[in-house]
Amino acid sequence: MQLKESQVAVLETASADEATSVDAVAEATDLPPETVTGAVFELEEEGLVAIEERVDETISLTDEGVTYADERLPEIRLYEAAVDAGAADEPAQMGQVIGASGLEGAGVDIALSNYARKGYGSIDSGEITADPDADSASDAEANALETLADAEETAADAVDVEGDVLDGLERRGLLERSESTVREVTLTERAVTELMAGIETAETVGQVTPELLTSGEWDEVEFAEYNVEADAERFEGGRVHILRQTAERVKETLVGMGFQEMEGPHVDADFWINDCLFMPQDHPARTHWDRFALEAPTHIDDLPDQLVADVERAHREGVGEDGEGYHSPWDEEFARALALRGHTTSLSTRYLSGEQIGEIEPPARFFSVEKVYRNDTLDPTHLLEFFQIEGWVMAEDLSVRDLMGTFEEFYAQFGITDIEFKPHYNPYTEPSFELFGTHPTTGELVEIGNSGIFREEMLAPLGVDCDVMAWGLALERLLMLMYGFEDIRDIHGTLCDLKLLRETEVTY
Ligand SMILES: N[C@@H](Cc1ccccc1)C(=O)O
């Protein structure tokens, strides 16, 4: 009998009395495991081997788990510091105990959220008590971490730890379970007979080459068969980030709805970012707490004189006969200060004023999908920068129904059909609405945007005398609703979840 080289290698390595794993065969023959698996399936087809499959579960500690195995669990460090501070007898000051425990940052939160749960004591209005009967040396989770820390990977059925303790550690993100399929082969009787009769190695060809074709040799060689069941090596090629893909899709959708794209600077004068939006100069969002100022250059060179005068007048006196201004200071120097834009509404003011592409006649629709920068506190829904989907429609008679209808049409194209609106306040729109969508897995309402109809005090100085409805929507929040992830940091930045980014299927 004639067989392929890899098949012969498997037959010579496996035995009839004892099952041999594919990995063991691969190691003994120096062949890649994928090749061995392929050969094993072909041999099974020929009735030469029997395959047994099982799924092995292995357990390994995450980086955080390894850290705690080494430095001990945060709640135990807190308990020991509390006992040292005498909290077993009377309540001790929380701040002091935390200081003495050496815990920092997230470690403190982790300690606090597990402390009472695990019976180490109680925490109440800044004071901590320690239960004298608690025994940190018999903490099941700590002991399990210690057991698991010895091996890089442990077979699940060989671990001497209670299942619910493992579940708890997994929930805390301290261990990971993974599954792999193990295949074992045993030679059949037929294989033994054939081996005794002698098996020859046949040359097989895996790929047709130009040489095979031109020489005519293709007609004589034996081709390897396709095995669609064989495990193949996995290639993680580069791909466009889902955020970028979705940005492109949003752009195409808006272009399809008749919008034109706006362009403009990331760093801009406060004049375009705020003053043109009838944002008073003493508005809290305009303090250094909220904006990223520029060190050099600090101010824009040029602003259109007439527009500056008109905007200043609107701020001081309001617009129209019974208009009211802010009666607050207005200073051109302040308006000329440069900052990273906190919203792309700066592009809208540039376009609406005629500054960017000249006078725009109604009806007109414009949009941008661009980055904005805010000095927010990082959390699952906030980053220091995000993409805003800015847009506006200029027409003679616009109402809230036009605004809501536009959002319904837009979001429906992303499969989101349950938008909710909540009345809101912006200095530059009246009425104003915040938009919410329902998170597909948690069911929570997520804020996805802010919108409204630009008010007279903003439009008149810009020289616009018809209606303009406008909005700023968060691209990342749209992604959350589309793909169901809960933490924005999963898709951006150092904590991003590569598996999620690799595996998310983009739906078009
Ligand atoms: N600039 C607003 C969004 C917005 C734009 C235009 C009109 C109304 C609201 C924000 O960043 O939240």
UniProtKB/TrEMBL annotation:
Its EC number is 6.1.1.20. Residues 242-503 form the Aminoacyl-transfer RNA synthetases class-II family profile domain. One of its GO terms (molecular function) is tRNA binding. One of its GO terms (cellular component) is cytoplasm. InterPro entries: aa-tRNA-synth_II, aa-tRNA-synth_II/BPL/LPL, Phe-tRNA-synth_IIc_asu, Phe_tRNA_ligase_alpha_bac/arc, Phenylalanyl-tRNA_Synthase, WH-like_DNA-bd_sf, WH_DNA-bd_sf. Keywords: Aminoacyl-tRNA synthetase, ATP-binding, Cytoplasm, Ligase, Magnesium, Metal-binding, Nucleotide-binding, Protein biosynthesis. Its cofactor is Mg(2+). Its main location: cytoplasm. It is found in: Cytoplasm. Mg(2+) binds at E430. Tetramer of two alpha and two beta subunits. This is Phenylalanine--tRNA ligase alpha subunit. It comes from Natrialba swarupiae. The lineage of its organism: Archaea, Methanobacteriati, Methanobacteriota, Stenosarchaea group, Halobacteria. The gene is pheS.
